[in-house]
Amino acid sequence: MKSIIRILLVDDATEILETEKQLLSFHNDFEVVGEAKNGKDAIALVELAKPDIVLMDINMPVMDGIEATRRIAEVAPNTAVIIVSVQEEFQALRGAIQVGAKEYLLKPFTTESLAQSIRTVYHQMERSVRATTTQVLSENFRSRSRVISMLSAKGGVGKSTIAVNVACAMAEKGKKVVLIDLDLFFGDAALLLGYSDLSRNIYTLMLEGDHYLEMVSSYLFTHACGLKVLPAPQQIEQGELISAHYIDDLVKALRASYDYILIDTAPALTDVLFAALETSDETWLVSTADLASIKNNQRLLKALRAVGSEPKLLRHLLVKRGKLSERAVEDVLSLETFSAIDYDPATICSAADVGIPAVLEHRASRAVRDLKHLATKTIAEESRRREPRVKPSRLRFLARGAKG
Questions:
Q1: Number of helices and strands in the chain (H, E)
Q2: Per residue in 180-210, pLDDT tens?
Q3: What's 5-127's CATH class?
């Protein structure tokens, strides 16, 4: 369904107003909401009718189009002005652009050129307003939302399994959690959760074009535990078409509605990975206790530092599969272990095969206990981070009172 674009016409010549109305009447997505014959009346009508677009003449009595455009930019920043002028008014036209006009049309013009200019400017303004709204929402909710990216240089280390199970454990504790599968070529988060209908995924969401941020919630599927998931594309070539700039906008939009956003990334240095790390509050690096995994993760961290994409807060998760000790792994990576997770293939793999997260079924497993502990630890840490700090002076006062 097309949006109706509300238009105000401003020109001191009646015949011009009539011509513009006639041209606009050929398009069912345009609605003329008012007419004015000078800039002063135009400002009053903008405040009253709140049009999307103003078609503004330059030379008019009482107040010209330049001054009217400047004031409209101040009082109605979500209304766009398109200047309608003749070639001889080129200098004035430059002045109008400088004070806030978004486009100009030279008289005479065709219905096609008029319609194209209006739609182009309208969609530009729409994107700008949406981006501003997303930024405001992101800033408002940033203090209560946490974005965590999962990272590893190797596949098969359990990164996706950890992401799915920790996300489910958090959701079970009443947290609003969304998991984004950014392994765009081979992502299987949805399958690990027993979800087979992948027709709605991050790729088909992006096909919504300018309106994709408004459609995010309808593309998330809900697991029985309460977790929301945005699956990876169904086909490899679809993953190649997803641009990094979408990721930042997507995460900012989701911050407004969720306590935790977990991002499962692919083991590859891509612009999408860099975008995920940039927008994340912390990153969990997953390793197994074998030399190949540790060496590759060491090289990955070095590469990220070299291109200026080192995670803001890096934490190491060690899956205890392999012969290296936890201390040896920490020495190689120069990174303390944030959480060590037992390797229990009988439990974890069997749960994955049937699409049921292990944390929901195998509560006696040591691996499950470790995963649930990681979820609890993360939530507790975040709760402490959000608690208001008591000023030192107040603490000293309380201490003196206790002694007395």
A1: 17, 13
A2: 999 988 888 888 888 877 788 998 888 887 7
A3: alpha beta
